[in-house]
Design goal:
Structural class: alpha/beta
Number of domains: 1
Shape: globular
Number of strands: 9
Strand order of the largest sheet: 1-4-9
Strand content: 15-25%
Helix content: 25-40%
Radius of gyration: 17 Å
Distance between the termini: 23 Å
Largest sheet: 3 strands, parallel
Amino acid sequence: MLLSSAYFPPLSWLALAARDFALSPDRVLPSVVQLEACENYQKQSYRNRCYILAGDGPQMLQVPVKHGKGEVPLNIQNVLVDYSTPWVVRTQRALDTAYETAAYYEYYRDDVFAVLDARPETLWELNLATIRLLLEKTGIACTLSPTSAFAAPGSELDDYRNVIHPKHPDNILADLGLGKPYYQVFQDRMGGFTPRLSALDLLFNEGPDSILWLKRL
C-alpha cells in the first residue's frame, strides 16, 4: 500500500494502515505501508493540515511551512516548518477547547503536545512523528517504509496518494466497512456524526477501543 505523509492524518488514512494488520493465535501480523518520500510538496493537502471537531463545526489546524525562493518544487523531505508564528500554542489551545470533555483526551494530551513541542525541523519529520503516535496509541502494528523512488500514478495497485485529499471526497471508510459512527463531542450540536476528521478525533473519543472500531470488532 502506498500512502503520502500526513499531519495527524485523517481517519481514512489510519483505517487503510490498519486494514492488513491482524492478530493470529501465536503472532502479530503487521500491515505494511510504503510512505511516499520522493514526491514534491503539495499545497492545500493533508500534508500540512488536519481537521478536528470544534463547537461550531470542523476546524482546520494548519502547519505553516517555508516554501523557499521562487516556485521551484520542493521534495517533501526538504520542506521546513515555519515556527516564526505561535501556531503550536494556537493548535494546543484549539485541541483543549475542542476535546477537553472527550472521554480519553486527558490520557493522550501530553503525548500529542510533546510531538508539537519537539518542533521537528522538517514537515516530513513532523508528519512521521504524528503518524507513529497515532499508530502506537490506537494499537496498530504497522511497518512504515519510505519509498526510494517516485512511483508514477497508476503504477501501484494500492496507490492512495491522491485519493485521500481534503477537497476530494472518497469512499474509503465505506469500502472498508467502517461507515458506522462512533460518539463525538458536539455531535448533538452538529446534528449527527461528522466524518473526514483527523484520527485524533477517534483516539480522543474512543481511546483504547479505537482499534475495535478500526477492525470492526
